[in-house]
What does this fold into?
Amino acid sequence: MSFQDPQWIIAIANSIVAAGLLLVVVQVWYSARGLKLAKQSFVNAVKQLELNREALDKTAEQVSLAQKAFIDSHDLERRKKAIILLKDWSRFIYEAGTGAKSFAEKLDFKKSELLWIEESFEIDTKQKGYLEQTVPAIGQVAVNAEGKIALSSSQVSILRKQVVSYLNLLETILSARRHNVADPDMLKEQFGNLVVPREGKHLLTHFRAIAGGVEAFPSIELFVKEIEDEKGACLPSKAKLGQVG
It folds into this structure.
C-alpha cells in the first residue's frame, strides 16, 4: 500500500485524532483529579483554621479568666491593706486622740509658726479646759504673770509632736491610696470627713504650709484638694472609723 493511498492517509489522520482525544481525556482526568485534590486540601485547610480558631478562643478565654482572677486577687489585697491601715489609724486615735490636731487646726498662721518651732504662746481662755481634757500629756495650763493663759515651750512641744505624728500617719495612709496600694474608695469613705470646707476644716492648712506643704505631705495635699473640689458646699456624711474629726 502506498503512503499516497487516500485510505492510508485517512487511517493515519484518524489515529492522530484518536491520540489527541486520548491526550485530552488524560489531561481532563488529571485536571479533575488535581481539582479534587485541591478541593480536599482547601477543605482540610478550612478545618485546620477552625481548629486553630477554637484553640485561640479557648486560650483567650483562659487568659480572660486568669486576668479576672488576678484583678480580683489584687482588689482583695488592696481591701485587706486598707483595713490594716484603718486599724493602725484607729489605734493611733485611741491612744493619742485628736485633741492636738483639732486645737492646731484653729490656730492662725503666726501661732502655727510658734507651734512648729516649739515656742510658747498664749491661748484663748476657752481652750484651756479643752486642752487639759483632750491632751492630758500637757498637764495643767498655767496663767502667766500678766494673768494671761499661755502654753509653755514644753507643752507646745508635746502638742507639736502629736500633730506631726497625726500628719505623718495620715500621709502614709493617703500615700497608699494615691499609689493604689490600698483600696482608694474605702479610704476616701473613712477620711473624706476630715475636710469640710463649710466648717473651716482643711486639715491643718497653716501648719502643713509651714512644714513644707506639698513637699512635706504630697498625698495629704492632693487628697484635700480632691475633697474640696468635690464637696464645694457639702456632701452626705460618711461612716467614720473611730473619732477622726
